[in-house]
Amino acid sequence: MSKGDRKLIPLGKRRICIYPGCSLTASSRDFADSLFQMARMAGMWVEELKDWNCCGASPAHSVNPEYATLLSGRNLILAQKQGIEDLYVVCPSCYIRLKESMHKLDKDAGLRDKLFEAYGTEYTGEVNVRFFLESLEPGDEEIFKGKMNQSLAGLNAVIYYGCLMSRPERVTGFELKVYESSIIKFVENTGAKVIDWGASSRCCGAHLAVSRPDLSDRLVDRILDYAKRAKANCIITFCPLCQVNLEMRGKAKDRLPVFFIPELAGFATGEVKALKWARRHLVNPLPLLRNHRIL
Amino acid sequence: MQTKSTEPIRMDAGFMKDVAERSGQMFNSCFHCRSCSGGCPMGEEMDYLPNDIIRMVQLGLKQEVLESASIWLCVGCLACVSECPNGIHIPDMMDTLRQIALEEKATIKEPEVVAFHQAFLDQVKRYGRLYELGFMTRYRMKSLPVLRDLPNYMKFFFSGRLNFLPEKIHKRVDMKRLNEVCNVER
Ligand code: SF4
Ligand code: SF4
To answer: Which residue's CA is the nearest one to ligand 1's atom 8?
Structure first.
């Protein structure tokens, strides 16, 4: 994707520029894989922001907010130079970091000067940071419906949004409520059942899962307990960190597999790579999927 | 800087002003309704609830605040920001408090968390991206108790969910200049 900057894209396709974030290049690469597959299904031409860098995640702003702003800010400068108006961010945490950086740079001339000092480009504020769901409209879930030929009946799912995605728009710039019913419909279209539950926006412990696993264990166990009491047999998530935490943390013995939402689209459309995705889970979903003749 | 003493309680009159300026928050508007603390997922584990920290900042209890576990346990989940009727951004305040704690070399209550942040940033400063394997081995080397994760990391590694070699940005000089501008050492 590096050569031919403004290469022609196939007719009828919409060009979408994505900021993938570190986890999507490694521990959650199957999320990236399945998501891009889904985007292509929806007629999008997905490109990666060229030479993007880490948003700094929690560590950067935790110890040095200014550094965090300028680190994330480099991505905005890149997008600006690459002529990108809307930068779609996949990971909810990266999204918040980039958005925050954008707000701080918009407000503070001193930070803009420092950004210029570091990267030699004037920040214009033309780039808009958006959450990847915003590349679709409510109602677009119908696009995928016709392509699903494998029913996921037997999956009883709870949808876990995690903390950041479910905050109000005035805080994050993204409003989940607009999309919520579409998300549910999307999952139901696959044949899976969506169960209402009370822990959809609880915190999984985020980065403390690495440094204070004991704390994260308690939070995850509580979430799993909610899910089991709701009689769910799997969890659906949007966040790479939540996915790993929910499968890795917690002391509970009977585990639930945690799927990224686009993985379901892969299962339902008979995507060949779906088996590979399933194999790479920490909690093996194959018994569940085989039981219901899904894979 | 303060010396360790149990009594009398030391108050630092300029502390609130300092934190307010650096974090851009107005602490006078907090009327301690505790909406923030009620929704905080870390509240149970914290030694002082989020609104207690604000109260302590208001009172100038600098040492207690900087040496608390709470400032390191806040994960920035924004629950409190969504709830606060006065629009106070507690995680931004926590960012500032953590920074002051490091600058003033306060006794850190949660050294594991700080080590995590620093190990993570070491990777980013070097490569511009997080090299998960390098980060995990380095960080885990320092904190062995979590042997239980080894099988998980092995599974990640052998199924190809971890890169063997670091992902790097092309223009690494940008990272160098950023470090200079922000006066952070590599
Ligand atoms: S919610 Fe806001 S006003 Fe209420 S105690 Fe917390 S910070 Fe203070
Ligand atoms: S942002 Fe921090 S203080 Fe606020 S609710 Fe979340 S963990 Fe608690």
So the answer is: B30
CA–centroid distance, residue B49 to ligand 2 (Å): 9
B98 shares a domain with B20: yes
Q: Are A273 and A279 in contact (CB under 8 A)?
A: no
Find the length of chain A: 295
Q: What is the pLDDT of residue B164?
A: 64
The pLDDT value given to residue A3 = 40
Domain range for A222 is 150-291
With beta carbons under 8 A apart, name residues in chain B contacting A212.
Answer: 73, 110, 112-113
Lowest-confidence range among A115-119, A176-180, B28-32, B113-117? Answer: B113-117
Residue B54's domain comprises 15-103
- CB < 8 Å to B154, chain A: none
For B169, which residue in chain A has the nearest alpha carbon? Answer: A51
Give residues 46 to 65 of B whose Cβ lies within 8 Å of A: none
Buried b (16+ CB within 10 A) or exposed e, B127-138: bbbbbbbbbbeb
Are A234 and A288 contacting, i.e. CB atoms less than 8 angstroms apart?
Answer: yes
pLDDT at site A295:
82
Residue A266's CATH number = 3.40.50.11810
**Ligand 2 centre and the CA of B144: distance in Å?**
28
B15 at A interface, C-beta within 8 A: no
pTM beyond cutoff 0.80: yes
Residue B161 Cα to ligand 2 midpoint, Å, equals 30
Q: What is the CATH number of the domain that holds B31?
A: 1.10.1060.10
DSSP H helical segments within A26-64, as ranges?
29-41, 57-63
Task: Tell me how far apart the alpha carbons of residues A25 and A165 are, in angstroms, rounded to a whole number.
Answer: 21
B119 lines ligand 2 (CB under 6 A): no
Q: Whose CA is nearest to atom 1 of ligand 1?
A: B84
Looking at ligand 2, which residue's alpha carbon is closest to its atom 7? B74
Of B69, B84, B103, which one is at a domain's C-terminal end? B103
| pLDDT above 60 (res A104) | yes
Would you say residue A140 lies in a domain? no
Residues with CB under 6 A from ligand 1: B 30-36, 51, 54, 83-86, 88
Count the domains in chain A: 2
- Residue B47 burial (CB < 10 Å; 0-12/13-18/19+)? middle
AA letter at A142? E
Same domain (yes/no): A121, A182: no
